[in-house]
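Researcher: Checking consistency across runs. Here is Solute carrier family 2 member 8 again:
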Amino acid sequence: AIVTLGAAAGGVLGGWLVDRAGRKLSLLLCSVPFVTGFAVITAAQDVWMLLGGRLLTGLACGVASLVAPVYISEIAYPAVRGLLGSCVQLMVVIGILLAYLAGWVLEWRWLAVLGCVPPSLMLLFMCFMPETPRFLLTQHRHQEAMAALQFLWGSEQGWEEPPIGAEQGFHLALLWQPGIYKPFVIGVSLMAFQQLSGVNAIMFYAETIFEEAKFKDSSLASIIVGVIQVLFTAVAALIMDRAGRKLLLALSGVVLVFSMSAFGAYFKLTQGSPGNSSHVALSASVSTEPVAASVGLAWLAVGSMCLFVTGGPQALRSLLARLRLLHLQCPFHLVLCP
């Protein structure tokens, strides 16, 4: 759980860095705790080193998850900006799937070594990328902004300079304006509901859940869930503009209710006493039913989890990825992005 604590701190730090150090430098800086954290995990001699490494990687995740969508949206050509915004969430679930696949064959220290590779590549390649034209203009570096635009787009066609004062900071007094507080409340509520849906707990503890469900190969089951999540995240991104955001959110809520009800029913049927610990010593005595009975209902646990990731939080996550693009039109992106 400490990785999420680091990510929360990283979100706050990223919000401060992105408008002061710039988008490019923020991404370069966040690769340092990524690599350092995985190196500490690799060399860990006790649990405190593991906790420290996880905290650092969580901090980097928090910064990167805020800054990367901003950088992508500001360098993207208008015609593909929405598509690239949706692809951010798609890349997240692909990363989860790759971690499941790697964890299936690698010991955890080697998995941490593998974790050093993506941030190292990002650190290398970002050195050759320009800062975003929008940020450069806010720093009154017009010539550098045009050079970055030429590098990214090949021409200045389609570029619209942000209006003067578009990057003003957020003040609490602005919340009295209906045009500010209504989107603010809706945006924050969507983010809260998305987190409270339990998707992170489901994905973080997928293998543990399948182990408690007495599934024969818990690693394989986790991979199946990861594959389904990737497929339906891609589908949600493709149909979002056609089906509409509101309809997808309503369907998502219905699917969540049914899938979690089925999931809860499974554990009610197979466990005699409550327990939610992933600790081996604590979870060893959770199940009081015969193993054969649990195995017989294992399909219900797998099916409900697959249904959860099929129609659950993915539409909402893709929508939130689109919401992050609002900072290009809205001067109050500091409210929406964190």
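Researcher: Does this match what you'd expect to see?
Model: One thing to look at in this run: The chain has a mean pLDDT of 78.
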